[in-house]
Amino acid sequence: MLKGLHHIAIICSDYEKSKRFYTEVLGLRIIREVYRLERRSYKLDLALNEYYVIELFSFPDPPQRVSGPEAAGLRHLAFAVDNLEKAIAHLQTYNVTPEPVRTDPYTGRRFTFFTDPDGLPLELYEA
């Protein structure tokens, strides 16, 4: 029935700040940017390695949502990286401070968490 994951939708509180984070810090490529006047909202379609992955939305005064890797609901978004230290060093050049590196006890793979400008938990997973 399911073919694959199509995209992940994220609502941000500060569009320009989040746009910079996802494009400059994380390096996602802009596919299309649309301003929807009737909603007073931007919709930014982003790609990773030529695959459409994230819809970034802005809405006037969105309500806050409880977040954190251990909160009920969507736990986090994980991005695969080849070299965890290099990815962490890149984030740190943008003043993004990841949590201490952990090791998955079942796979032996290393990972770390960090947050986007709205506190959405994100993960780097060494694949």
Q: Main traits of this protein?
A:
127 residues; alpha/beta; 2,3-Dihydroxybiphenyl 1,2-Dioxygenase, domain 1; 4-stranded mixed β-sheet; 2 helices; globular; VOC_core; metal-binding; YwkD-like_dom; metal ion binding; Fosfomycin_Res_Enzymes
Task: Describe this structure as you would to a colleague.
The protein has 127 residues and is an alpha/beta fold. It folds into 2 domains: 1-61, 2,3-Dihydroxybiphenyl 1,2-Dioxygenase, domain 1 (Roll), CATH 3.10.180; 69-127, 2,3-Dihydroxybiphenyl 1,2-Dioxygenase, domain 1. Helices cover 17% and strands 38% of the residues. The protein has helices spanning 15-25, 84-93, and strands at residues 8-12, 29-36, 41-48, 51-58, 77-81, 102-103, 110-115, 121-126. A hairpin with a 5-residue loop joins β7 (110-115) and β8 (121-126). The radius of gyration is 15 Å and the shape is globular. The two termini are 27 Å apart. The relative contact order is 0.20. The mean pLDDT is 90.
Short description:
With 127 residues, the protein is an alpha/beta fold.
Fold topology:
Elements: E1 8-12, H1 15-25, E2 29-36, E3 41-48, E4 51-58, E5 77-81, H2 84-93, E6 102-103, E7 110-115, E8 121-126
Parallel strand pairs: 1-4, 5-8
Antiparallel strand pairs: 2-3, 3-4, 6-7, 7-8
Report the order of strands and helices: EHEEEEHEEE
Indicate the radius of gyration in whole angstroms.
15 Å
Q: Strand-residue fraction? A: 35-45%
Shape: globular
If strands are numbered along the chain, what order do they take across the biggest sheet? 1-4-3-2
| Helix proportion | 10-25%
